[in-house]
Each structure stands twice: as C-alpha cells, then as structure tokens.
Specification:
Length: about 450
Amino acid sequence: MKQVPQITVEAAAALVKDGDVLLGGGFGMTGNPVHLLHALAKTQTKNLTFIGNNVGEPNLGGGKLLLNGQIRKMIGSFFTSNPDAVKAAQSGQVEYELLPQGTLAEAIRAGGAGIGGFYTPTSAGTLIAKGRDTKIINGQEQVFIEGIRGNVAFIRAWKADTAGNLTYRMTEQNFNRAMATAADLVIAEVEEIVPVGEIDPNFIHTPGCFVDYLVEAKVSLEDLGSSASVNRGKKVSESRMQMTKRAFAELKNGDVVNLGIGIPTLVADLIKPEDGIILHTENGMLGVGPAPEDGGGAMDYPVNAGKIPVTALKGSSYFDSADSFAMIRGGHVDVAIMGGLEVDEKGNLANWAVPGKPLLGVGGAMDLASGAKKLIVTLTHADPDGTSKVVPTCTLPLTAEGVVDLVITDLAVFAYPEGKLTLIELMPNVTLEEVRAKTAAQFIEKLS
C-alpha cells in the first residue's frame, strides 16, 4: 500500500501558485481546512480563484485570504454571511460568480468524475441562468452547468491513515468529499493520522487514491467561528409564532422536511419525537434534533444549514452536500418551508435578492424550491411601509417559477388550487377586509 506524504501546513501552502484555482472545503467553518488556509494567508501567493460554499467568516479561513487581497475571483453559493466578501464584491476588489448550493456541489462532483457538465432544473427562469444554455427535458426547462475542477483542493477530514484514506465526522463531509476528487493536487488537513489498516474499510469516505498530501492539525474552538457554541436567547413575537404553528400543522408523520432560515427554523422547536417528522438539512444530515441543552458547539455536535449546532436523533445519517442535493432534486424531500420576499398570483417565489444590494446569497433556496414535493412559504404580509409582499407578479429576482403550494403570512393563508391564488384561512383576530386592503394580488376567496 502506498504511503501518502505527510507535510507541514507551510509546505502545503507553498504548493499553491499565483493564479491557481483553489477549492476550499467546509460549510461555514464546519469541516473547514482553516489551518491550511491560514498558512496560505501568510504567503505572497495571489490572483487566486477561490471556489467554496463561501469564503469562511471574517478573518477566518478563506476570509483571511480575502482581507489580504489574495483572491481575484470567488465562486460560491452564499457569500452574504461574510461582510468582508460583500464589501469586496461591491467595491470591485474581487470578481464573483454565484451558483445555487446544490448546483455548485454537483458541478464539483461532475468535475471530479470527468463529466463535462449536466442539465439541472435548478435556477431555470432566474438571473443565475442568464447566458447559459437551456433545454426542455421531459417537459421541464433545464440549465446547463459545466463541471468544476481546481488546481489545488484544501479539504478537511477527521481522520486519515498513512495511505491517505479519509473518514469525516458528522456534518463535516459537506463539500470536502466532492472536492477531494476534483483537483490536480489534493491536500487533506486532518485531526489525526493513524497507521494504514486502523480505519475499517466500511468507514472510509474518501479512498486514498484521491489524496496527494496529508497535514495533521488539531481543530480548536477558535477555528469554528459562529458555530463554536449555541445561543439560546432568541425571542419570538406572537405573530411569528402563529405562522410557525400554522406551518407545523401542514406536516404529517413520516414527512422528510427541510426548514429554511428565519421563521421556518422555528418549526423545529415544535417537533416532538412522536410526531415522526424527519428533518433534513442541506449541508448533510437527515434526522436533525433540537439544539443541545448543554450549550455545546460544533466541536461536539453536527450543525444545520444555519450553522447552528444541533443534536442527532436515533436513526440519523450524515452525507455530503452533493448527495444531500441529489435527495432534494430527486424528489426525496416531502416538504420545504422557506421564507420569502415576494410571492405572486402564479406561485412564483422571490426570496434571495433585493434591488440595490449585491446578489451574493442564493444558498440552497433554488434547489429546494424546485425540488421539494411541497413548498410552503412564510413571510410577513407587507413591508414596514405597508407595501404588499403578495403581489400580482414578482418584481424581485426570482428564486423559482410556479413552485409555491402554500403561503402563510401574519394575516392569512393562501393556496393554489387549480393554479389560482386562493385565500383559504384568516389568522386569529384578522378580518377579511384587512386582507383585501393589504394584498396587492388578486385572489379567490374560499374561507372555510
């Protein structure tokens, strides 16, 4: 069995050259090769194209490269979480390309498998698809995405043997597994290196043939950024809680459910084990439990898509981001509940971009909106100035076309029987006249 060279973080950083395309694993700071990236930040290497879900947090991981001006272009899914990335994009300091999270993961998997590209329904009809080839396949518009490869991949695994076989811990697979296959040079940062044979073949996630170098580096609380611990101090207004409870009422035993950021996340607090509802999080977990009661963070627990540490219920499973979005696009998620900025009479959804702000945060919304069997959107009925969010036609950039099944606002519940926007329920202490006055869209009334 071959032995994979073990090198220092400094030696690894020296292997990255000016102008390289660098794949950086991790979801936020979970499973992030932070020691490799920080070593690279101490070099003079520049003009990098950085590809990852994001560029880490301010001054952490790829965030250090960004602050140093070493990144020329960033390609990813959710840069909004790093204010430095937003500033760099707005100022023109870096070029950027935004891809839906599942599309990014699949493009990396395709690149690693020697596949030139693929068609996906995700992003069809949106700004993301602008300039890309599209085709109607089985009656559905699909967008062509090229496979992605890099010159170098920095990835993070939990354990390696001396032959380069890797095993990951909890939700730390995320983008790491696909990136391990998709670069000319793969450098794995790991918590521990053990003799070959000490990892049971059943638990090897990345075979050693993909790995060129190993670096042993211990992760610490400081490396985990905002996922280091749980903040349980959230306060929820009565109207938000009403929307949460109404969304929860749509779920049934056995449903596989994905919860978006904001109001949808609150649904998790209502789910009890006896409800039989299985929570899916797109960064690689099925069977999500509540936040840990002991205040522990990502050192001890998996994290969800909001980068919040959670517990794992009996029967839970972990996987990588590419497999996670294959579940979504393949129709294996029964219900997605997500927030919205606008919904319209045709069931179109806009929830990822606001005029005047950089389009830096699509995340997994497009994949979920087009892939889930049922889509529930929660949103306040109007902006603070009274402008309706339930509109005749969406004016904000679309997330997906004709996908919304149920709209829950702080005033009312709408459905789309026969494709028509229909008022089916009023929220407590809300009158029909109030809903009519505050709704810009035309709707049918079928109150029970």
